[in-house]
């Protein structure tokens, strides 16, 4: 015998073979293991567990049976996989913290929310929950199709004839090959109300349905923070739902306690407790003195004890940001329909369930109709026999055997075989008058039932009414109130209506402590005053920047890494004039080594505005402000910085109607910059032609060594967020750098310049000639040993005062109108009497009315050249 007979060999391409095998495996996992059916919401293992318990009479009204017995029945009859997989599925179906409505009632150790494992299957017992009966009801009435099990010895249902929308009720999660599902649980009452409304309003919109189905209802409670993720999930089948722990504040002496009552879904309580303790130990969260778990059989109680001076709201925000007290549930409503996986929206899933119920009711009605017809047919034969009882008895007595008797009855009385057999099997007691009346009454009722069942099959309206009645029955039988609260976050609601829109001074220190103080806390002083302490800093800390903004404004934080975050002003804790403030990392999601370089207030994100960035090395970048209106919690990229560069300033400018937005990459921008710079160097002498009548927006950039440059904003074209920018000014001195920039809309505006020694002046913008971008500029302020370096520039505004901040933390407020005007190449007058101290930054703030008469003070001129 030739073992290598060519006729027995099939040539197969290995690539095609692998593709085919992998696809077969993928579909097996997708359809047969990992994903739920859209109709009953069950994966095969869960369906087989319930069906095995149903067959073994492990029902809620019977005694508990060993879990090992149930697992054995499942793997022996229907599920040819490991017992551990089956038992794990059974355990989860019995956990009240995993299932909104548990399908199994367990007895024994079935695990805990602390992550404890369930006891071995030989120790635990289980039975079907009351709700599980509604999943299997009418399964014996030919309502669903059955298929052979894995060895063909028995049959199992393809789907259960569930009377509850189990997919949405208990949710589901699973990972298949190339896809995953994650469906949240919901409230039964809300689902029923939504289904009833959908039955009456076939074209109902999502907004109408969401009047009834508010959102997911998790078994562990908690708070769903914001509705946007819910709406996205219900509309598209995908969304991100933010869940927070439910807490309350208790007072213990002069301390506050944060008590956690409910946790986000699938959060491990013991691990959360350890996580909080670790963060406190590493000093990543401040203000916590102790944590303890006081949970018992009555519920969760995780206590966080705060220090005396700690603010509970800030600590809570930090806990939400840094721990699993806030988690995100990524919704993917993917399920199997017609043997194919598909992502559904909410209304599609509701309609699928209603269609499934219609199919079940039609098949059940047909089954009951056939059964009623068969019984009526038998009763009609019995009635004929009773009407002719003497002839029937005589015929039977004369027959040789039962077969001849059956044939004789069929022939003589025109009966069917089934009727003849029923007559032969009829007991003598049915010959009594009472039994005869019962047969006639039963036949009458059956004929009425047959008529009713036929009318149901002919009427869509009657089928839908049956669905409504059954849904209402379920709702009344298993009525449970919602336990997960749904609240709006501050992005969803306009909480600003509840907060006064007041001017505030915001200060931020080198170590990252921020606070806001009403501007009225700083009284106006005369020019040359000593100032007031603006903040008490730590020994190794100092105020790095400050500015003014209204409570309703949005603050955009730009960091040294080029990331941008934003925060409402009223979200910053208000402090006293001398308070240290709170760490900014408690308010925005900064990386550990990330430092804020610029903070820009804005009232809106109009696309008619640009956000301009200025760096120490003289780079300017301009991007449309609308690019920054959708900020994620981790921020967005604002600007790409060179390795030895850092952000100095960022400000908002109105566009002049130019339509030169570009989304080129950094490399393309650098090439453009080089070409422009070469052109500017060739035409450097042309800058002497003053353009005082220029009426468009201009950029004014000043340097530490007293130089400045003014050029049109439109010469800086708009580019995308992830870009470097172009050159604004070149430096004459090697150690020079940019210290500030402003936007000018008219040459009649005045620019206020202030030096490190508190000397300032006001100069008309028109005195600085218009130049090409990238030039070396002209003198902005004449600097000497008495003035030191230039530290800041601002646009003079009659409705605003000037605030100057010194390195020791002193802040002085003065009327800008009291500062004398001077020419471009001059120094100025003393504004801040700093002594050995130095001014580090300046800003504008709203004027404050002063009822007291001010003394007229002679200007303290230094005798400097003007």
How are the SSEs placed, and which strands pair?
Blueprint: H1 14-34, H2 44-55, E1 65-66, H3 67-77, H4 83-94, E2 104-107, E3 125-128, H5 130-136, E4 146-148, E5 155-157, H6 166-170, E6 172-175, E7 180-183, H7 188-200, H8 206-209, E8 223-225, H9 228-236, E9 238-244, E10 246-252, E11 255-262, H10 269-281, E12 288-293, E13 302-306, H11 312-322, E14 326-332, E15 334-337, E16 340-343, H12 346-387, H13 389-398, H14 402-413, H15 417-425, H16 433-458, H17 460-477, E17 485-487, E18 503-509, E19 513-518, E20 532-533, E21 543-550, E22 554-559, E23 563-568, E24 582-583, E25 596-602, E26 609-615, E27 619-624, E28 636-637, E29 647-654, H18 666-682, E30 698-703, E31 707-712, E32 726-727, E33 738-744, E34 750-755, E35 759-764, E36 778-779, E37 790-795, E38 800-806, E39 810-815, E40 829-830, E41 839-846
Parallel strand pairs: 8-17
Antiparallel strand pairs: 1-3, 2-3, 4-5, 6-7, 8-9, 9-14, 10-11, 11-13, 12-13, 15-16, 18-19, 18-21, 19-24, 20-39, 22-23, 22-25, 23-28, 26-27, 26-29, 27-32, 30-31, 30-33, 31-36, 34-35, 34-37, 35-40, 38-39, 38-41
InterPro entries: GyrA, GyrA/parC_rep, Gyrase/topoIV_suA_C, Topo_IIA-like_dom_sf, Topo_IIA_A/C_ab, Topo_IIA_A_a_sf, Topo_IIA_dom_A, Type_II_DNA_Topoisomerases
Subunit structure: Heterotetramer, composed of two GyrA and two GyrB chains. In the heterotetramer, GyrA contains the active site tyrosine that forms a transient covalent intermediate with DNA, while GyrB binds cofactors and catalyzes ATP hydrolysis.
Keywords: ATP-binding, Coiled coil, Cytoplasm, DNA-binding, Isomerase, Nucleotide-binding, Topoisomerase
């Amino acid at each position: 015998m030739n073992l290598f007979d060519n006729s027995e060999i099939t040539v197969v391409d290995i690539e095609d073979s692998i593709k085919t095998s992998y696809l077969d495996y993928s579909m097996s996992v997708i359809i047969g293991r990992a994903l739920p059916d859209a109709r009953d919401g069950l994966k095969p293992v869960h369906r087989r567990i319930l069906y095995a318990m149903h067959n073994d009479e492990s029902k809620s009204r019977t005694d508990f049976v060993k879990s090992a017995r149930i697992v054995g029945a499942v793997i022996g009859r229907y599920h040819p996989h490991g017992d551990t997989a089956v038992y794990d599925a059974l355990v989860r179906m019995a956990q009240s913290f995993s299932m909104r409505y548990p399908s199994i009632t367990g007895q024994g150790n079935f695990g805990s929310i602390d992550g404890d494992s369930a006891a071995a299957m030989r120790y635990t017992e289980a039975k079907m929950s009351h709700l599980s009966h509604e999943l299997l009801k009418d399964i014996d009435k030919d309502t669903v199709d059955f298929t052979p099990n894995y060895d063909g010895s028995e049959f199992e249902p393809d789907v259960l004839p569930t009377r509850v929308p189990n997919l949405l009720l208990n949710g589901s999660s699973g990972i298949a090959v190339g896809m995953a599902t994650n469906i949240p649980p919901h409230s039964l009452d809300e689902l029923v109300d939504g289904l009833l409304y959908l039955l009456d309003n076939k074209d109902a919109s999502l907004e109408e349905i969401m009047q009834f189905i508010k959102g997911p209802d998790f078994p562990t409670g908690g708070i769903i923070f914001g509705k946007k993720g819910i709406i996205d999930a219900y509309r598209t089948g995908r969304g991100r739902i933010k869940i927070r722990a439910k807490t309350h504040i208790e007072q213990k002496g002069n301390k506050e306690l944060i008590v956690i009552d409910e946790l986000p879904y699938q959060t491990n309580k013991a691990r959360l407790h350890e996580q909080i303790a670790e963060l406190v130990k590493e000093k990543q969260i401040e203000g916590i003195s102790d944590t303890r778990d006081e949970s018992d059989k009555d519920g969760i109680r995780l206590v966080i004890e705060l220090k005396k001076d700690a603010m509970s709201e800030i600590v809570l925000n930090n806990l939400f940001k840094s721990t699993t007290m806030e988690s995100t549930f990524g919704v993917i409503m993917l399920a199997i329909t017609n043997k194919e996986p598909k992502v559904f929206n909410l209304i599609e899933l509701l309609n699928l369930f209603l269609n499934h119920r219609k199919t079940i009711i039609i098949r059940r009605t047909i089954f009951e109709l056939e059964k009623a017809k068969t019984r009526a047919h038998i009763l009609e034969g019995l009635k004929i026999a009773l009407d002719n009882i003497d002839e029937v008895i005589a015929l039977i007595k004369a027959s040789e055997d039962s077969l001849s008797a059956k044939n004789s009855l069929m022939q003589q009385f025109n009966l069917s075989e089934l009727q003849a057999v029923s007559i032969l099997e009829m007991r003598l007691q049915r010959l009594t008058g009472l039994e005869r009346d019962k047969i006639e009454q039963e036949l009458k009722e059956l004929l009425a039932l047959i008529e009713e069942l036929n009318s149901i099959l002919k009427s869509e309206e009657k089928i839908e009414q049956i669905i409504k009645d059954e849904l209402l029955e379920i709702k009344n039988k298993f009525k449970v109130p919602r336990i997960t609260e749904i609240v709006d976050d501050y992005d969803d609601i306009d909480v600003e209506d509840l907060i006064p829109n007041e001017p505030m001074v915001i200060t931020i220190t080198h170590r990252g402590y921020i606070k806001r103080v009403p501007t009225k806390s700083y009284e106006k002083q005369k020019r040359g005053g000593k100032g007031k302490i603006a903040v008490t800093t730590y020994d190794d800390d100092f105020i790095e920047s400050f500015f003014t903004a209204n409570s309703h404004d949005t603050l955009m934080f730009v960091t040294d890494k080029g990331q941008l975050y934003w925060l409402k002003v009223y979200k910053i804790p208000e402090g006293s004039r001398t308070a240290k403030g709170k760490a900014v990392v408690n308010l925005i999601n900064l990386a550990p080594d990330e430092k804020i370089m610029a903070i820009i207030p804005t009232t809106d994100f109009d696309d008619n505005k640009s956000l301009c960035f200025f760096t120490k090395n003289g780079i300017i970048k301009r991007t449309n402000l609308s690019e920054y209106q959708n900020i994620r919690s981790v921020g967005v990229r604002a600007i790409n910085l060179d390795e030895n560069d850092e952000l100095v300033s960022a400000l908002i400018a109105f566009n002049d109607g130019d339509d030169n937005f570009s989304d080129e990459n950094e490399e393309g921008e650098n090439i453009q910059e080089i070409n422009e710079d070469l052109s500017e160097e060739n035409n450097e002498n042309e800058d002497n032609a003053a353009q005082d009548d220029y009426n468009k927006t201009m950029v004014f950039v000043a340097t530490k060594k007293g130089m400045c440059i003014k050029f049109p904003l439109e010469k800086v074209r708009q580019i995308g967020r992830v870009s470097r920018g172009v050159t604004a000014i070149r430096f004459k001195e090697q150690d020079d750098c940019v210290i500030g920039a402003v936007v000018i809309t008219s040459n009649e505006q005045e620019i206020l310049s202030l030096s490190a020694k508190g000397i300032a002046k006001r100069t008309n913008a028109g005195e600085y000639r218009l130049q090409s971008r990238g030039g070396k500029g002209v003198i902005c302020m004449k600097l000497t040993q008495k003035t030191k370096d230039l530290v800041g520039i601002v646009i003079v505004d009659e409705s605003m005062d000037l605030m100057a901040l010194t390195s020791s933390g002193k802040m002085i407020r003065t009327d800008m109108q009291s500062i004398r005007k001077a020419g471009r190449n001059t120094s100025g007058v003393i504004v801040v009497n700093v002594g050995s101290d130095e001014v580090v930054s300046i800003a504008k703030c709203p004027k404050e009315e002063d009822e007291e008469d001010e003394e007229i003070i002679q200007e303290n001129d230094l005798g400097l050249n003007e």
